[in-house]
Amino acid sequence: MSSDQQRSVEMRAHWKSLLAMTLVSLSSFQYGLDFGIIGGLQAMVPFLQPVGSLIGTVVDNFAAKILHRGAYIIPLGMIYIAPGILAIGLFFIPESPRWLAANDQLQKAERSLRWLRPQEWSVGEELGEMNAALNAERQLQAKVGYSELFRNPIDRRRTTVAVLAMTTQAASGAMFIIAFGTYFFEMAHVGPAFENACILTGVGVAAMLANSFIITRYGRRRRLMITGVLLCGLMQLIMAIVYTVEPGTQRSGKILVGLSVIYLFAFNGLIAPYAWVAGGEIPSQRLRSHTFGLAAAIGFAGAALNWGPKYGYIWAPSCVIAALWIYFFLPEGKGRTLEEIDEMFEARVPARKFATYRCTRQHAIVEKIETEHCEKA
Questions:
Q1: pLDDT value at residue 236
Q2: Residue 221 CB partners (closer than 8 Å, separation 6+)
Q3: Is 32-127+155-329 assigned to CATH 1.20.1250.20?
């Protein structure tokens, strides 16, 4: 069976888990999906964001031409479609088995796993490994809270790595172009701002689709993120220089649009998916929700400024700093189980050695064999 056929079988076998993880961003980790495909599944979160943005921009573009109340009722009504579908879907999925096991509800955790897994799956063995990892964490520290994110040296390192991994999105200056794209094009006198924003968002969706063929096949996430932040920084710097030399001219406007397209392709294809994956898989299991929530909140902090295209003078050097941090401090987690990641952090393995480190715990070895079988080309 080829690699693609094997991956297709795994996706069909875990279809219930796939349904569950589309409803909340951390479900792919909490539901214990096969780590041969988890990178692509977690990347669905930043993929759905530009899809929703594209739909919203297209609807707003057409609604702007309406001269009655439908101009605002139609866009507002569209907002409730996706949440309505998700709200209904929540009634049909069980609670996360990892969360249930962490709260000593092992019988419910087993039922949840049996619902999520194929019939031939060894649920008892998986639940045992999951519970063993949770018990090992409890022996280190029993409390769960935001203060625990920084109390223990191991948790402090994991929290810092997860937060800074998510912050690479803000460091690249993405929120300015993504959230204020229409205003940016209008201010730059580029032409129809809505149409240009639609094109820009469409490019972002295309980049995410292209990335879906890479994230589960090519494990060098660190290299891809470094390439992405450096490319984004270069685009931001050129944009700032162009707008400083020729602000508001038609030629500079066209250049800004072209650079924005290249920028968003690099961000959506090389930074956003891997930042979300790293931010979700690096934290300690008992502190994952606290760590990921903090990381996501800090990751949006860069949206507070409003300096126009001259933003590039800030984001270009911050991209260089982010690239250096990724190279020295961000671990490579492709193909690793949560239990293996736990062991490597407890062993204080340097980030650059994560890809080659051989885990020694028996439960990690068993699960690793299954993962390598799934990913084998």
A1: 84
A2: 39, 215, 274, 277, 278, 330, 332, 333, 334
A3: yes
